[in-house]
Design goal:
Length: about 425
């Protein structure tokens, strides 16, 4: 059970659960094209146990049961993503009608169950043919992505409650092109710098395309991390400021101030695309809402041996999830308040929050603490309008494969049987109790 009550969030607050296409759908049939995660996972050493999304949770076939679970949990909304390669298998050009038909059924299924569809256009499954052309390193991706966005808006725009362009641009750019942990697995500063700009430029370009098709209630989902120094030393403070710059300020400053942070630009200048400044009005296109994903904090220490960003992340003293991420609800309050004071007065949604853990009692406590953190942020003036638990189902946790379980519903990958966990029941108890 949670200690918080639904009524404390006000009558219009949206509670939902979140998932992403590659992590749950499976269903690599009916004309779906391949994506960068298919090949990344097929390359030895990239993903634990070489797991891939070939079957995942078989949501492609089991979606009615999954939507029933969301409805029966008492949730108001469902945050899902559409797979670009399912809709446009080559990334550009011919549209796959079977792909459109799937999302048609899925979205209607949400509406029939009284669930508000919160769509995300890109949650990391870039069509492979676009990677062959440079993917996020190629400025042309803005046009490819805008064309795909327009197809989605034309077919579903009138039925979507809200649409986000990109999930977690830091992951799309930095994690995938500088740290090499996610597909396409680059470890290259020029690749990363280009992706860091193009992902936001493509976002802004897609917003214009969505609006041109009449789509409403548009935003983007940034993942934010509380960055704190490992000690009081000025050097560690500098390290945490730098990490905050690459993780948080690059995206927030770009999107909501129309200018990238000078300290990070100074370090990336030789690698950024020439003339990027001229794109900033597109990057900072006005939005209707802002999504924030939050999981943890990072503790940073100065590390002179690391070029460009002389820092390293050190293990902190707090309780952790089973991936070693510290549990720090205050970070969620602080970030929501910071975004609302320093960046934007747009309605804010916590579009993801949750815990990788096999001990579900810990997950219940995690959710309870973070829901309280949202209430605290609201008390401090942040206009938070909704909260989405990550995730509805245990699913494909990217480079961790299926070893990490974030679901409030357990999935037996042998049988695909879904079993609600205590954390699901805790949400259900809170959401059905209108106090
Ligand atoms: O599973 C991911 C999700 O795809 C994006 N946000 C973070 C989650 C947990 O790592």
């Amino acid at each position: 059970m949670f200690s918080v009550e639904r009524g404390q969030f006000g009558p219009n607050f949206v509670f939902g659960t979140a998932t992403a296409a590659y992590q749950i759908e499976g269903g690599q049939i009916d004309g779906r094209g391949t994506c960068i995660w298919d090949t990344f996972a097929a390359t030895p050493g990239n993903v634990k146990n070489a797991d891939d999304g070939h079957e995942a949770d078989d949501h492609y076939h089991r979606w009615p049961e999954d939507l029933d679970l969301i409805r029966d949990g008492g949730f108001d909304g469902y945050r899902f993503s559409l797979a670009w390669p399912r809709i446009i298998p080559e990334g550009t050009g011919a549209i796959n009608q079977a792909g459109l038909d799937f999302y048609d059924r899925l979205i209607d299924g949400m509406l029939e169950r009284g669930l508000k569809p919160f769509a995300t256009l890109y949650h990391w499954d870039l069509p492979s043919p676009l990677q062959d052309r440079g993917g996020w390193m190629n400025r042309d991706i803005a046009g490819w992505f805008a064309d795909y966005a327009a197809v989605v808006a034309r077919n579903f725009g009138d039925r979507l409650h809200a649409t986000a362009t990109i999930n977690e641009p830091w992951c799309v750019a930095f994690l995938s092109h500088f740290l090499g942990i996610h597909a396409p697995g680059y470890r290259d500063i020029r690749a990363a710098s280009r992706a860091m700009h193009h992902v936001l430029f493509a976002h802004g370009t897609a917003i214009a395309a969505l609006r041109a098709e009449g789509a409403k209630n548009l935003g983007i989902v940034t993942n934010l991390q509380k960055c704190e120094p490992a000690s009081d030393s000025p050097a560690d403070l500098e390290a945490s400021t730098l990490m905050d710059g690459t993780f948080n300020r690059w995206y927030l400053d770009g999107l909501y101030k129309g200018k990238y942070p000078a300290d990070i630009v100074a370090r990336l200048e030789p690698y950024l695309p020439a003339g990027f400044e001229a794109d900033m009005p597109v990057v900072s296109t006005p939005l209707d809402w802002a999504g924030i994903n939050y999981y943890s904090r990072s503790l940073l220490a100065y590390d002179a041996a690391t070029p460009v960003f002389p820092l390293k992340q050190v293990a902190g003293p707090l309780d952790k999830n089973d991936l070693g991420w510290e549990i720090y609800p205050k970070g969620l309050t602080d970030l929501l308040v910071r975004v609302s004071r320093e960046y934007t007065k747009l309605p804010l949604y916590v579009t993801e929050n949750g815990m990788s853990e096999t001990n579900d009692e810990k997950r219940v406590a995690y959710y309870d603490m973070h829901l309280k953190a949202v209430l605290e942020a609201r008390a401090q003036g942040a206009d938070v309008r909704g909260y989405f638990a990550w995730s509805l189902l245990d699913n494909y946790e990217w480079a961790e494969g299926y070893s990490s379980r974030f679901g409030i519903v357990h999935v037996d990958y042998e049988t695909q049987k879904r079993t609600p966990k205590g954390s699901y029941r805790a949400f259900q108890g809170m959401l059905h109790n209108t106090k």
